[in-house]
Amino acid sequence: MLTRFALRRLVLGAGQVLLLLVLVFGLSLLLPGDAADARAGEWFSEQQRTQTRQLLGLDLAPVTRFLRWLGHVLTGDLGTSYAGGEPVARVIGEPFAVTGLMAALTTLVLLPVAGCAGFAAGLRPGSVRDRVITTVSVVLDSIPDFVLSVLAVAYLAVRLRLFPATFLGVDLSGMLAEPGYLVLPLTVMVARVAAPIVRLVRAGVIDVLDQPYIRQARRFGVGRASLLLRHVAPNALGPALQELGRTGDGLLSGVLIVEAVFALPGIASTLIEAIGDRDQPVILAIVLITGVVAIAVNTLIDLAGQRMVPRRGRS
Amino acid sequence: MVESPGAAARSPLSRRGFLLGTGLAVGALASGCADASGSGVDTFSAVFKGSGADESLDPGTSHLFIDEARLKALYDGLFEVDDAMRPVPRLATAAEPNADGTRWRITLRDARWHDGAKVTSADVLHTLSRILGPAGQQPFIAATTLDLVDLGQSREVDERTAEIALHRPSFEFRTALAAYGTRIIRAGTRDFRRPVGTGPFRFDSFRPGREMVATSYDGYWDGAPRIGRLRILSAENDARTAAVRSGQADFADDLTPAAAKQMRGDGNLRVQATPNSGIYYFAMKTDRPPFDNADVRRALMRMVDREELVKVALQGDGEISNDVFGKGFQYYAELPQHTFDPDAAKALLRKAGVPNLTIDLFTAPAATGFVEAANLFAEQAKQSGVTVRVRVGSGDTYYAEALKTGQLTMGQSGPLSIPNHFASRLLTGSPQNRTNWHDPEFDALYGQALATASEPERAALYHRMHEILHDRGGFVFWGISSWNSAAAAGYRGIPAGVPNALNWARFDKVAR
């Protein structure tokens, strides 16, 4: 059952990624100008631009270019960047690692923090504790993340100098060697995605606590800890876990703001630069990898959700 | 590598403390290794506007400001230009023409490459032949500037003397040798991933879009730099500001007027505003209606309220200009200031037979204030009975598109010597002829000026060319912005030249 579900999702996922690539490539062609124009700035003559176009292979038909790119990808070669002539793998390797690290750390911080906050609020709805947690999460949710980022930089980094203001000149090993760099961006990222999860966990807990089987378990004298961990938690966390899947998508757009403000060398800013450069090999490679990761994460979360709350019939 | 105060351990729990428990715990570890890199070498970190994967270290093809800053640290040109765009000898000690300006004898300084080898005339000829030879993945920036060089007739006279032959006379050849993309590379070099130059700093490492690190070169002919190590970092506007304000960087280039204003109150920083740095213009395509009529062009020059444009689009951080390029530069012509005069504009348009003119203005967020200037100009033009339709394109590819399309476009130019401005933008066949200016009289004057040995006589010819453009040219140069930078207050010798000039982004004279 689970295997067939996984297999179906795999085939569906591959189709989705291909569709996404075609769509993104098509959209990138609709942008004004091409890589030669973007590179030309005010320095190249018309003739030099034509020459650049030929050197980059931009004079070929778009369909040919796309199919060639796809062919190379199937052999494991992501191609060469139009902008600097570097292999695409080298251009996107470290940025993916940086963004991946950010996403992983965010999730690592998010799960206990948002989970506990939601639980704490849901156990005593209407209490002072609940109102404080709910208010804080609503307030954080309603501050746009760029405002939060800019405020964090202006006060905590520039004025108080508690943390570095930017990631200038820091590479992945530098970030790991000196995690002080990660505090502000992680804070903003967690604040950005925590609120809906807190809300869902809280609602789940309230909902589950009201179920007849919980009342029954209580009447049986099941201990408080055991009740919360074995009966309430799995059922209350299901919807929140689904939300976490969506958070994955939200993380990417959130990471863009954070990358821009903190000059974090991640994949979102690499993508924006690639779009500015009309650098299709880089754009497509990023879309390919993020697409695969997003679909994989969602599938895994669906699988986990199915295990946690098994439902009869089709999901 | 840590210049930043990584003192996370001092941080008290913030309001959001409960949400960031883990983050703070992680951060607290940071302080322990904050000074791990205390190697005793004085590192100077300078941040410039970055451009991602596009950045490179090839002296022949790089054309971004940040690339220039890096190349200036690693390489030298035979000549560079001062703040008035006059050529100053650098790797060359002199360049002397023959009587008709068709052969130049260049003598080289006693300088050494970073690996200890001598700089020779073979290096000069190699550099020229690379620029004029077949392009690799990118065209060479100076290919058109130097296309008058006759390589076949040029030769090494001796180790320190080169004789360069020209296809046609030019007494401005020193200026051509100071242009972008002409820094001297070592004979035989093809790979620029680990550059060996003659400049004040030796290459250590480079990551495009991130940073370059270089170390002081003790054997530098112009005196070893006072700082031990130079880092040139890439960042967008806000990050540049934050980096220098938080003490993470020692120098930030190209600040917005708002950021500069804010930093003037900061005692830890010294903000410098260099005037005559960014020249803003409207460009009329003179080969198509309605601007193929000189009276319509004259009218446009009078439809522009320059004071207001500078106040709004440049946020007051600049001054008005007069449709003559290169204020403050050698060969600039002081001519009567064009003023905002809707009545005169209307009269000229009536004379041209287009009293109710409608024009398209193609703009894009390609530089600060472009779209604002376009919209403001559309308002101003109404007073002369002209309807301006503003079309906003993509900032990424704007310059390439504006070269071929549209009636009226916009631009911003960094400082450039006036002869090079004429050569690259205003001659029939110029590579960036944005106004499609093809004027036989103008072309002839330019050829005549280049063939004139006497500098005052050359200046007189350039003056006549300026008069033609001031009267009926296609450019409306409406404003000149300042260039703002900020540096940590503890340093002396911070560079303060106009962009593209020798003293811009020059860090070999910086000292604590």
Automatic annotation (TrEMBL), chain A:
Organism, scientific name: Amycolatopsis jiangsuensis
Similarity comment text for this entry: Belongs to the binding-protein-dependent transport system permease family.
Residue ranges occupied by any ABC transmembrane type-1 domain in the UniProt entry: 96-301
Membrane topology: Multi-pass membrane protein
Transmembrane segments: 96-120, 132-158, 181-201, 251-276, 282-305
Single Gene Ontology BP annotation: transmembrane transport
Protein name in the entry: Peptide/nickel transport system permease protein
InterPro entries named among the record's database cross-references: BPD_transp_1_N, MetI-like, MetI-like_sf
Ribonucleoprotein found in the keyword field: no
Keywords of this entry: Cell membrane, Membrane, Transmembrane, Transmembrane helix, Transport
Keyword presence, Transmembrane helix: yes
Cellular compartments per GO CC: plasma membrane
Subcellular location: Cell membrane
PANTHER family tied to this protein: DIPEPTIDE TRANSPORT SYSTEM PERMEASE PROTEIN DPPB-RELATED, PEPTIDE ABC TRANSPORTER PERMEASE PROTEIN
Pfam families: BPD_transp_1, BPD_transp_1_N
SUPFAM superfamilies, alphabetized: MetI-like (SSF161098)
From TrEMBL, chain B:
Residue ranges annotated for the Solute-binding protein family domain, each copy included: 87-414
Predominant cellular place of this UniProt entry's protein: other
Record's keyword terms, sorted: Signal, Transport
Location within or outside the cell: Cell envelope
Molecular function in Gene Ontology: peptide transmembrane transporter activity
Gene Ontology biological process terms, A to Z: peptide transport
GO (cellular component) term, any one: periplasmic space
Domain of life: Bacteria
Family, as annotated: Belongs to the bacterial solute-binding protein 5 family.
Protein name: Peptide/nickel transport system substrate-binding protein
